[in-house]
Amino acid sequence: MSTPNSLRLPARARAVTRAGLAAIEATPVRQTRPTAVLVPGYTGSKEDFLSILEQLTAAGHRVIAYDQRGQYESVGDEDPGSYGIPALAGDLLNLLGDEPAHVVGHSFGGLVARAAAIEDPGRFRSLTLLDSGPSAIPGDRAERIVALRPVLLERGKDGVWEYMESAEELPAEVEAFRHRRFYASSATGLLVMGDELLAEPDRTDALRATGVPVLVAYGKDDDAWPPAVQADMAGRLGAAHAVIPGAMHSPAVEQADATARVLLDFWASVDELTAREARAASS
């Protein structure tokens, strides 16, 4: 579970609703660059990106971070089909405007964003897969999802929370937030999203075929998808590739400044190339 270091909203950031989803929208003094949309991972929320919003808006981007359906403050329902990757990708496409945006998908959010890009690449100025792999999550995290599935079915969120409690000492407001976020999230959503993480096929070739510019970025010590697996995916995609030192699976929290710089550098390179191509086409 990604846990923000602080719940302070940056200047010029506010809670909003976009396409029926709870979001935080941060706006620059003057928007000079494309909008960016940030998609959280499994058991995460929009607050996972709070630490990078100021840096992104300072560069001229309007930024929207949102809760996926059934996460925290976004309303869900009891239909399991609402939480499959196709449905969640549809939510993202509904949220994206007519102007292509830079999209960042963290972990499970990367699988959702990838599905949306494959379905409608024209909505994407770029896609960043942040600590997100080519297919089903492997290793210890997969084993944990498998182990907690019957606990969730038999004992509900109370049973799962016992395993989710943080071993580290957190500020009281952050610990209260973790508890509130977990209990506000849909149990059906937790179940289905977990199943999706265990079953996602490798769609790397389909993503490459879209032509969407892609960045594969991850913490040097990511403990979800192994870094070597993500590096191989970047090679297969022909994608830009960045390793964030000092970070594990939540670099936007663990190394906020470095993560923001990686995103801004990639977005600037995409925007420059897009501008050059537009000038060439009009000449």
Secondary structure layout:
Blueprint lengths: L12 E6 L2 E6 L9 E4 L10 H9 L4 E4 L18 H11 L5 E6 L1 H12 L4 E7 L8 H26 L7 H13 L2 H13 L4 H7 L3 E6 L7 H11 L2 E5 L6 H4 L1 H27 L1
Parallel strand pairs: 3-4, 3-5, 5-6, 6-7, 7-8
Antiparallel strand pairs: 1-2, 2-4
Helix pairs in contact: 1-10, 2-3, 3-7, 4-6
Describe the structure.
- The model has no long low-confidence stretch (mean pLDDT 95).
- The longest helix is centred in the last third of the chain and has 27 residues, at 256-282.
- This protein is 47% helix and 16% strand.
- It has an 8-stranded mixed β-sheet with strand order 1-2-4-3-5-6-7-8, with helices on both faces.
- It is α/β, with parallel strands linked by helices.
Following the backbone from N to C, one meets helices and strands in this order, namely: EEEHEHEHEHHHHEHEHH
Strand elements, count? 8
Query: Ranges with pLDDT <50 over ≥5 residues?
Result: none
Summed over residues and divided by their number, the pLDDT gives a mean of 95
Count of DSSP H/I helices: 10
Can you give me a brief rundown of this structure?
With 283 residues, this protein is of the alpha/beta class. Helices cover 47% and strands 16% of the residues. It has 10 helices and 8 strands.
Index terms:
283 residues, alpha/beta, eight-stranded mixed β-sheet, 47% helix, globular
